[in-house]
Amino acid sequence: MAKINIREIIGSKSEGINAHMFSVDALCKGFDTNVDTGLTEEQAKENLKKYGPNKMKNMPECNMVRRDNEWKKIMTEDLVPGDIVEAFSGNFEPICGDIRIVKIFEPVHVESYFLYKDCLNFLKEMTVEQTSEDPIETSNLIFHGTSVFAGNCIGIVFQTGENMLLSDVSHDLLATPAFADSDDEEHEGFWKRLGHGILNMFKSKKEDESHEVEVTYHKDTIEKVCETYNTDVNKGLTAEQVAINQEKSGKNKNFGEYVKIQNYTRCKRDGEFQNILSKGLTIGDIISLKAPQIVPADIRIVEASEDCKVNKSGLTGESESQKVSVENTHANPLETENVAFASTKITTGTCTGIVVNVGKSTIIGRLAGLNSPLQ
User: Fold this and answer.
1) Which of 19, 60, 184, 235 could disulfide-link 271, Cβ–Cβ 3.0 to 4.6 Å?
2) How do 345-348 and 272-277 pair as beta strands?
3) Residue 205 contacts by C-beta under 8 Å, 6 or more apart in sequence?
4) What is the mean pLDDT of residues 146-173?
5) Contact 121, 112 (CB under 8 A)
């Protein structure tokens, strides 16, 4: 895939952006607005005359704004610079204007393949403070054409319509492309054949028979888990071990119709952490996760920060995030602190774990009816 030249595509549009450089008070004065109460209807009408309607393709019909000290639903084409809006995850409607962040209630991560291609999973953590003079590099601006992956914030709209930074960028360029199952499939043939051959040397008919899986990795010591999955916490798997384990476990995909994992995961192999396609993870891989990442496979925790928590609501129905630690705190693997499951979400902190199940062998894969029952 050809490398995208952002500057060439957006041209000189970024040169006129300075909303990130002003204080919030100065920005409010410039747009005749107030962060706490928003525009008055009269001020909104004046700004609509001044800046024009917010007409763009593929935008929702309505948008929520704060006006006259209350949240109101307005027609999206009536959204104007100076409007106070809320940007948050779980809102599947597109960002309808370019926004300067003024308050953050929960840490905000914005997703954009086009703008943040060099960031892990194309996610950038945002701030209230200006972090760069370059409007594309600073962390206190959110642009139309991006999406809020996690968090919640309030912002001032500073550009609408054709003036928005990415208004001329096609949907094809803004969308995250589909990724192959492996970023080196053309070169993996040797190791795959080797792993297949080694396994066939030891496989018995009994091993081919379907069977229930007994979960013990939350009870076992870390050393025992490493022995079981032929791995090393400090070094990770070697290329040869990856091939052998992938032959056993298969690809890390097919979780079910409604489950989506992120494209890349930070994984330790041959002694070094590297970003690999999550579909290429296998049992025994040592992976590092940081909020707000979605857990890409079932993992046994080997290290966790004090503030690390995971949201398991999709599996257990619990709305509150649960603590993550290296301790086995419950006989039930769904309840213990030292296991995190594919499709759950790290909400705060960081952790490192050993992959114990991938794809259709994960708990979520089994719940989707894709593999053997959990014992």
Assistant:
1) 235
2) unpaired
3) none
4) 94
5) no
